[in-house]
Amino acid sequence: MRAELRKLITARSTWLLLAIAQLIVVAGVSGLMLQRDDPASDDAQRGAIAHVGLVALFGLLIGILAVAGEYRHRTITDTFLARPHRDRVVLSKLVVAAGAGAVLGVVASATALITDAIWLAAKGLSIDLASGVLWRTVAGGIGWNIAFAAIGVGVGALITNLSAAVAAALGWLALVEGIVGELIGDASRWLPFALGQALVGLPNSADRPQAWQAGLVLVLYVAVFVAAGIGVTTRRDITH
């Protein structure tokens, strides 16, 4: 795990993704604050802070890079020679990537809260740090980042071609989930991205799963992807 952490923090891509995520949060919160006539309302505050969850896509990329990136740079052989138990390698990557997702969520939350506070102050208002809605949204956004980073590890273990893994993951979230959602109707609320939205309280509808339900199903997604990734990894020939 120390080795995996060292790989993570010494990779330029990690810090680049972290920086870009903050820019997206600032842009998202600013755009919403400019549009809302009621920026201090619970609904507006939920929408502003919910941008923390949207950067979970970067957590997903970090998880994929943790595994598929090693295949891309041909360092995976050395990793498995140093630790022959491949399942432990994948689990170590899982823990470190999930931790990275948590850090990404916390940093993005701080960025969102600061940006939100600045915009409210500019409008002569102040952020309500005692609001339960605010902190539930923050917690949901952090959880979303952790879950997607963990899922990314499973995806990277299953699809070792880095470009293919990234394309498959982003293609699913951007295109397939929407198409599948139209085909399966209400069941689409149990798909990964929709569950992430439920964690931050979006959409503002009684039809969405409760946050605890969304979290539980996301954990199941993590378990399935990681278990499948470990199963494939322990049997895969990496000599070519």
TrEMBL record:
<feature type="transmembrane region" description="Helical">
    <location>
        <begin position="89"/>
        <end position="122"/>
    </location>
</feature>
<feature type="transmembrane region" description="Helical">
    <location>
        <begin position="212"/>
        <end position="232"/>
    </location>
</feature>
<keyword id="KW-1133">Transmembrane helix</keyword>
<feature type="transmembrane region" description="Helical">
    <location>
        <begin position="47"/>
        <end position="68"/>
    </location>
</feature>
<protein>
    <submittedName>
        <fullName>ABC transporter permease</fullName>
    </submittedName>
</protein>
<keyword id="KW-0472">Membrane</keyword>
<feature type="transmembrane region" description="Helical">
    <location>
        <begin position="142"/>
        <end position="175"/>
    </location>
</feature>
<keyword id="KW-0812">Transmembrane</keyword>
